[in-house]
Amino acid sequence: MKGTWRKVTCVAAMLGMLTLAGGQSLAAEQRELPTRSNKEVTVPAQIAFTSNQQLFVLNLQDKNSTPKPITKDGLAEIVGWSGDGQWLLFVQYKGDSRYSAPGYLWLVRADGSGAVQLDDRPVTGVPKWSPKRNQVAYTVEIGSGEQSRTLLVLKDIRDNGEVVAGAETPAEFYDFTWMPDGEALLTSTAAAKNRPMTLVLQNLAGQPLAAYPIAEPPNGEEDIYGLAATGMKVSPDGQLVAYYVQYNAASLSADGVPIQLFNLKQPAKKPIELGTGLAYPQWLAWTANSQQLAFIDGTDRMATKNKQLKLAGRDGKVVSASPADSVDTYPVWSAKPPYTLFFSRGKATDHAFDTDKMMVPGQRIWTRNANGAEQPLTKGAEQTADYYPSPSPDGSKLLFLRLDQVDSGSLFYQADGKESELVKGITGDIGYYANYLPEWIAVYWNS
Questions:
Q1: 20 to 30 Å CA-CA from 382: which of 7, 23, 187, 249?
Q2: Calpha distance 262→398 (Å, rounded)
Q3: How many whole angstroms from its chain centre is CA 424?
Q4: What is the structure's pLDDT at 12?
Q5: How far apart, in whole angstroms, are the C-alpha atoms of residue 323 and residue 418?
Q6: Would you indicate the residue range of the signal peptide (predicted)?
Q7: What is the DSSP letter of 439?
């Protein structure tokens, strides 16, 4: 995870913004403050969201609760809730762009109190919560120029808010993710001369436990080759990992990279290629029983066309689940069986950026049940679009964002076939070529 690569991808992302007529600048325009539009409908969940580049939290279970601002300046980016819902991680940028200013990692309680900066050094990459405890792993870059190096930092968050510093070890990897048991990390090492692209299992002290070469080393004559695994998603049983193979060319990678599946318990077997897609970890999703992987397949950096939902079994066999003229994004499974898949679907669109039109007009949240039947779940006007499906654990309730403008919308709730608008005034960035990432909302369902 070298700083040079981060700079390259940030420049590419910024160019993408400019190509789309400045999505970032739109988000910077000041709008009215967010408001709770329906206090009679309560939901057993808490939500974090952005508005006017600032972060807000709201307890949807308390009908008297109103959006509480957490930040007042700069730009806030949601990282996510802790596994127990007590804490929210976010990154705050000093300026109004994540591409031109450093970001710093912060922590805040679910009720909006106790905000604390976790590190006075800028973070690189995406911080990640442990799946088993209130522990966060993230990377920072120290030094400058040829003396710069990247460190992996671990910190524990106690219930009383005390932050306990853990190990700081060299981050000699391209990307990382937690193993499901929370006792180890899976990292990826970039290919180089006489060195294959490799997955490395390491303990929390930074010591390698196992190494899994997943390709042959570059032969030295190739101009373009697979550089490293990124966006890794490990199956809940810890046996399989899905990931994207980033090329050594940023522009080529932006149009789609191989999606592969590797069996960590059978390392002698070669990775299985599932398809080609944009390298967004949010577009890879495992069922809780580790039997199925949902992913978005399709080339072209625009997120408004040629993006199809597909499913892969543990054996790597792929089933297409999309009509040819659709565009699908954001697959997420219900946490409990029978597993229902929720995703956004609309009609594929060759779209030139227009502030008066949706990027995918009429996009709705769809479901696919355990028998493979698909149907639209949400209903709305053609000039709106639905994003970020957030189902309750049993799949009976749904929170989602409905856009009524390209860069603003409302939080909606659906249960028993009825939709209710809960919060107005949620705004954010359309992202890199209309991927709407990072997410504008993060939902934690109360148990």
A1: 23
A2: 32
A3: 23
A4: 39
A5: 27
A6: 1-27
A7: -
Distance linking the first and last C-alpha atoms of the chain: 36
Lowest-pLDDT range of 139-143, 173-177, 217-221, 417-421: 217-221
* DSSP state at residue 251: H
Dihedral, CA of residue 362, residue 36, residue 44 and residue 396, to nearest 10: -20
Contact 276, 221 (CB under 8 A): no
pLDDT of residue 22: 35
For 342, half-sphere exposure in the C-beta direction (CA atoms, 13 angstrom radius) is: 24
Let me know: does 333 contact 320? Beta carbons within 8 Å.
no
Q: Is 177 helix (H, G, I), strand (E, B) or coil?
A: strand
The letter for the amino acid at 440 is W
Determine contact, residues 341/368, Cβ cutoff 8 Å.
yes
Q: List the domains of the chain with CATH numbers.
A: 3-28+135-434 (2.130.10)
- Identify which of 320, 318, 304, 331 has the alpha carbon closest to the alpha carbon of residue 389: 331
CB-count burial class (<10 Å; 0-12, 13-18, 19+) for 288:
middle
**C-alpha dist (Å) from residue 92 to 4, 71, 77, 245, 368:** 21, 8, 6, 29, 36
29 confidence band (pLDDT: 50, 70, 90): low
Paired tokens of 406? 């390209």
pLDDT of res. 15: 36
Backbone angles phi, psi at 23, to 5 degrees: -60, -35
List the structure tokens of 357: 């039109």
pTM equals 0.93
Residues 262-290 have pLDDT tens digits of 999 999 999 999 999 999 999 999 999 99
In degrees, rounded to 5, the angle at the alpha carbon of residue 445 between the alpha carbons of residues 407 and 339 is 95
Both structure tokens of 174: 């391209």
Asked if pLDDT for residue 240 goes beyond 90, the answer is yes
Residue 72, pLDDT score: 96
pLDDT value at residue 31: 77
Residue of 310, 198, 291 whose CA lies nearest to 236: 291
- 3-state secondary structure labels for all residues of 272-329: EEEEEECCCHHHEEECCCCCEEEEEECCCCCCCCCCEEEEEECCCCEEECCCCCEEEE
> How far is 119 from 139, CA to CA, in rounded Å?
10
What radius of gyration do the chain's Cα atoms show? 21
